[in-house]
Amino acid sequence: MHHAYLLIGGVKEAKDFIEQKFGKQQASPDYFFFDSNVFGIDEARKINEVAIRKAFTDRKIIFIAPDKITTEAQNALLKTFEEPVPNTHFFLAVRSEELIIPTLRSRMQTI
Q: CA 75 to CA 109: how far, in whole Å?
């Protein structure tokens, strides 16, 4: 299982994909859902903080579903996506693959 996925499409499809992989996660203390109009550097820093915290369960799922994600935020996520904490899985759902810089895209499996 890959640690980071780039999901092209809508939030509902992304949630369905996560549920297929891991079952229902919404009630888990290790399920983090970030949706915003603009995902910026402050949100990326928050993700990095969440990613390094110890999990309560056997896995941590971080689901990011912004309308727009800034280049600065993507650059801030690079190291976290490259060297993830074990059993931490990232899901980034966007409408178009072109919204993501190539270096961050290279650290994810695109679906």
A: 17
